[in-house]
Design goal:
By secondary structure, the chain is α/β, with parallel strands linked by helices. A hairpin with a 2-residue loop joins strand 4 and strand 5. Helix 8 runs parallel beside helix 9. The longest helix is centred in the middle third of the chain and has 21 residues. The chain binds adenosine-5'-diphosphate and magnesium ion. Magnesium ion binds next to helix 2.
């Protein structure tokens, strides 16, 4: 194993950029939420996106997933420009996402939520199969089986028949991930997937990103938890005031003085002022 040259290993494809955000710009009135922003996401990586509150992380995820559109700049996925495409076309190309505030369907079981993800993927072919009724039940059985496999992936099989709204916050976030996976993405965008989770649940999300990476997925994860970023991300990009601050390995980014200043600036200033007294 140790004798394998990088070029012969999966790392060869990991060096390719799956996503390139180039000079992206998005203003809301006078606020430059994303400003001349640049980042790349390597194929096969778990990439972290960090930055203080209001830095523009969610706006960037919204731009990539097509929920909103950039004022200018380009976003390329597998070499194709996607910045002008509607969200459903971007989803069809292989980008799925979760939301900072969990968005599940009311009144649906965990299993149904995940099956809904599959319906989104195969809407056209499913309608065809419904019209040819004899096929429909076997197609549904197949979708159910796929959804159960995904629930196994996120460790929620034993909750399949439960109404999703009755689950804990951490479990709901995992349902949302499974539903995103049901669209069979190649790039998964997670917006603060561990918000509101305890340390053990958070580590579980980190481990899940590695399982998904092993399955061939690329993950871009907005994350504040420094330990999680350090332990699970291959690369990190940090933004501040909508702009690129630093990108590099987790340790390079976390230790970078500009990052420290962005996150802890006020405290550092206070300590410096105190030390001058
Ligand atoms: N729909 C919107 N309308 C107006 N301002 C917005 C909107 N969305 C985000 N913003 C502003 O853009 C900036 C970046 O927000 P956001 O992308 O949510 O940051 P983050 O996710 O890093 O906390 C903030 O100043 C926020 O108030
Ligand atoms: Mg956000």
């Amino acid at each position: 194993m140790t004798g394998l040259a990088p070029a012969a290993s999966p790392a060869a494809s990991a060096s390719e950029d799956l996503l390139v955000v180039d000079a992206a710009q998005k203003h809301f009135g006078g606020v430059a939420a994303v400003s001349d922003f640049y980042m790349t996401v390597k194929s096969g990586s778990v990439t972290g996106l960090m930055g203080p509150n209001g830095a523009g992380k969610t706006t960037l995820v919204n731009l990539i997933s097509g929920l909103i559109h950039a004022d200018s700049g380009s976003i390329r996925f597998e070499g194709q420009s996607i910045e002008a495409l509607p969200a459903h076309q971007i989803a069809a190309l292989g980008i799925a996402r979760t939301y900072q505030n969990v968005r599940l369907f009311a009144g649906m079981t965990v299993l149904e939520q995940v099956m809904a993800g599959s319906f989104m993927r195969r809407e056209a072919s499913l309608w065809a199969s419904f019209l040819g009724l004899p096929k429909a039940s076997s197609r549904l059985a197949q979708l159910r089986a796929e959804a159960m496999t995904l629930l196994e992936r996120v460790n929620l099989v034993n909750r399949a028949q439960v109404l999703a709204e009755t689950l804990s916050y951490g479990e709901q976030r995992r349902v949302e991930i499974a539903r995103a996976l049901a669209t069979r993405p190649r790039l998964l965008l997670l917006d603060e997937p561990t918000a509101g989770m305890n340390a053990q649940e958070s580590a579980g999300i980190g481990e899940l990103t590695h399982l998904l990476r092993d399955d061939g997925l690329t993950v871009l994860m907005v994350e504040h938890n420094v330990r999680l970023v350090r332990d699970f991300c291959d690369r990190v990009t940090v933004m501040n005031f909508g702009r690129l601050l630093v990108s590099g390995t987790p340790v390079e980014c976390i230790d970078h003085p500009d990052v420290q200043a962005a996150y802890f600036g006020k405290r550092a200033d206070a300590e410096r002022i105190r030390s001058l007294r």
